[in-house]
Design a protein that fits this description.
Length: about 160
Protein backbone atom coordinates (compact mmCIF):
# COMPACT_ATOMS: atom_id res chain seq x y z
CA UNK A 1 0.00 0.00 0.00
CA UNK A 2 1.35 3.41 -0.97
CA UNK A 3 2.32 5.85 1.78
CA UNK A 4 -0.21 8.37 0.50
CA UNK A 5 -2.97 5.74 0.78
CA UNK A 6 -1.86 4.80 4.31
CA UNK A 7 -2.05 8.43 5.41
CA UNK A 8 -5.52 8.78 3.88
CA UNK A 9 -6.69 5.58 5.62
CA UNK A 10 -5.23 6.72 8.95
CA UNK A 11 -6.88 10.14 8.68
CA UNK A 12 -10.27 8.47 8.19
CA UNK A 13 -10.05 5.17 10.07
CA UNK A 14 -6.91 5.40 12.25
CA UNK A 15 -8.65 5.84 15.63
CA UNK A 16 -12.05 4.84 16.91
CA UNK A 17 -13.21 8.49 16.94
CA UNK A 18 -12.04 9.00 13.33
CA UNK A 19 -13.65 5.72 12.26
CA UNK A 20 -16.89 6.69 13.97
CA UNK A 21 -16.90 10.09 12.26
CA UNK A 22 -16.07 8.57 8.86
CA UNK A 23 -18.88 6.02 9.15
CA UNK A 24 -21.21 8.83 10.18
CA UNK A 25 -20.17 10.84 7.10
CA UNK A 26 -20.44 7.92 4.69
CA UNK A 27 -23.89 7.10 6.08
CA UNK A 28 -25.42 10.55 5.89
CA UNK A 29 -23.47 12.38 3.21
CA UNK A 30 -24.40 10.13 0.31
CA UNK A 31 -20.75 10.11 -0.76
CA UNK A 32 -19.98 6.64 0.60
CA UNK A 33 -18.01 5.51 -2.51
CA UNK A 34 -15.39 8.15 -1.69
CA UNK A 35 -14.84 6.50 1.72
CA UNK A 36 -14.97 2.89 0.47
CA UNK A 37 -13.16 2.77 -2.88
CA UNK A 38 -9.58 3.13 -1.60
CA UNK A 39 -10.11 0.39 1.03
CA UNK A 40 -11.61 -2.00 -1.53
CA UNK A 41 -9.05 -1.34 -4.27
CA UNK A 42 -5.84 -1.03 -2.25
CA UNK A 43 -6.33 -2.82 1.08
CA UNK A 44 -8.68 -5.77 0.54
CA UNK A 45 -11.60 -6.62 -1.69
CA UNK A 46 -13.35 -8.08 1.38
CA UNK A 47 -14.16 -4.49 2.35
CA UNK A 48 -16.51 -4.55 -0.64
CA UNK A 49 -18.65 -7.14 1.13
CA UNK A 50 -18.75 -5.03 4.30
CA UNK A 51 -19.71 -1.84 2.47
CA UNK A 52 -22.18 -3.68 0.24
CA UNK A 53 -24.04 -5.14 3.22
CA UNK A 54 -23.73 -1.96 5.30
CA UNK A 55 -25.05 0.36 2.59
CA UNK A 56 -27.93 -1.93 1.63
CA UNK A 57 -29.02 -2.40 5.25
CA UNK A 58 -28.68 1.27 6.20
CA UNK A 59 -30.27 2.64 3.03
CA UNK A 60 -33.09 0.10 3.23
CA UNK A 61 -33.69 0.94 6.89
CA UNK A 62 -33.65 4.69 6.21
CA UNK A 63 -36.09 4.33 3.30
CA UNK A 64 -38.40 2.20 5.44
CA UNK A 65 -38.34 4.73 8.27
CA UNK A 66 -38.93 7.68 5.95
CA UNK A 67 -41.72 5.80 4.16
CA UNK A 68 -43.31 4.91 7.50
CA UNK A 69 -43.19 8.55 8.61
CA UNK A 70 -44.79 9.78 5.37
CA UNK A 71 -47.41 7.06 5.55
CA UNK A 72 -48.21 7.90 9.18
CA UNK A 73 -48.61 11.58 8.35
CA UNK A 74 -50.71 10.82 5.28
CA UNK A 75 -53.02 8.53 7.22
CA UNK A 76 -53.31 11.09 10.02
CA UNK A 77 -54.31 13.79 7.51
CA UNK A 78 -56.75 11.41 5.82
CA UNK A 79 -58.25 10.55 9.19
CA UNK A 80 -58.68 14.22 10.02
CA UNK A 81 -60.22 14.79 6.58
CA UNK A 82 -62.65 11.92 7.15
CA UNK A 83 -63.59 13.27 10.57
CA UNK A 84 -64.08 16.74 9.12
CA UNK A 85 -66.24 15.31 6.32
CA UNK A 86 -68.42 13.48 8.86
CA UNK A 87 -68.77 16.63 10.95
CA UNK A 88 -69.64 18.64 7.84
CA UNK A 89 -72.26 16.08 6.83
CA UNK A 90 -73.79 16.19 10.32
CA UNK A 91 -73.96 19.99 10.13
CA UNK A 92 -75.61 19.79 6.70
CA UNK A 93 -78.14 17.29 8.00
CA UNK A 94 -78.95 19.49 11.00
CA UNK A 95 -79.28 22.53 8.74
CA UNK A 96 -81.56 20.62 6.38
CA UNK A 97 -83.72 19.42 9.30
CA UNK A 98 -83.92 22.97 10.65
CA UNK A 99 -85.03 24.33 7.27
CA UNK A 100 -87.66 21.62 6.98
CA UNK A 101 -88.95 22.42 10.46
CA UNK A 102 -89.13 26.12 9.52
CA UNK A 103 -91.08 25.13 6.41
CA UNK A 104 -93.41 22.95 8.53
CA UNK A 105 -94.09 25.80 10.95
CA UNK A 106 -94.79 28.20 8.07
CA UNK A 107 -97.17 25.65 6.46
CA UNK A 108 -99.03 24.97 9.71
CA UNK A 109 -101.38 27.95 9.40
CA UNK A 110 -103.72 26.58 12.07
CA UNK A 111 -100.80 26.41 14.53
CA UNK A 112 -102.06 23.11 15.93
CA UNK A 113 -98.74 21.34 15.39
CA UNK A 114 -99.99 19.24 12.46
CA UNK A 115 -100.25 19.74 8.71
CA UNK A 116 -103.40 18.87 6.85
CA UNK A 117 -103.48 18.12 3.15
CA UNK A 118 -105.15 21.48 2.53
CA UNK A 119 -102.43 23.38 4.42
CA UNK A 120 -99.76 21.40 2.59
CA UNK A 121 -101.27 22.10 -0.83
CA UNK A 122 -101.76 25.80 -0.05
CA UNK A 123 -98.14 26.43 0.89
CA UNK A 124 -96.79 24.39 -2.01
CA UNK A 125 -98.68 26.60 -4.48
CA UNK A 126 -96.52 29.61 -3.60
CA UNK A 127 -93.70 30.25 -6.09
CA UNK A 128 -91.14 31.04 -3.40
CA UNK A 129 -91.88 27.73 -1.66
CA UNK A 130 -91.61 25.82 -4.95
CA UNK A 131 -88.22 27.41 -5.56
CA UNK A 132 -87.09 26.72 -2.01
CA UNK A 133 -88.21 23.08 -2.25
CA UNK A 134 -86.37 22.64 -5.54
CA UNK A 135 -83.23 24.02 -3.89
CA UNK A 136 -83.77 21.42 -1.16
CA UNK A 137 -84.03 18.86 -4.00
CA UNK A 138 -87.65 17.96 -3.22
CA UNK A 139 -90.00 17.49 -6.19
CA UNK A 140 -93.41 19.05 -5.37
CA UNK A 141 -95.42 18.41 -8.55
CA UNK A 142 -97.69 15.77 -7.00
CA UNK A 143 -98.51 17.32 -3.62
CA UNK A 144 -101.10 14.73 -2.61
CA UNK A 145 -98.70 11.86 -3.25
CA UNK A 146 -95.94 13.67 -1.34
CA UNK A 147 -98.34 14.28 1.56
CA UNK A 148 -99.36 10.60 1.62
CA UNK A 149 -95.70 9.57 1.79
CA UNK A 150 -95.24 11.77 4.86
CA UNK A 151 -98.57 10.89 6.50
CA UNK A 152 -98.78 7.87 8.82
CA UNK A 153 -102.42 7.28 7.81
CA UNK A 154 -104.31 9.66 10.09
CA UNK A 155 -104.61 12.51 7.56
CA UNK A 156 -102.22 14.69 9.56
CA UNK A 157 -98.48 15.13 9.33
CA UNK A 158 -96.62 15.76 12.58
CA UNK A 159 -93.22 17.51 12.77
CA UNK A 160 -91.55 14.13 13.44
CA UNK A 161 -93.17 12.58 10.35
CA UNK A 162 -92.22 15.62 8.30
Amino acid sequence: ILLESRIWIYKRYGTSARSFWTVFELTFSGGWPNYARLLVEEVSSSFAVFFFVYIIVVVFAMFRIITALFLRDTLAFASRDAEAAVQEKIKQKESYASKLLDFFEAADTSKDGFLTLAEFQTILEEDGVKTWMSIMEVDVHDTEHLFNILDSGDGLVSPEEF
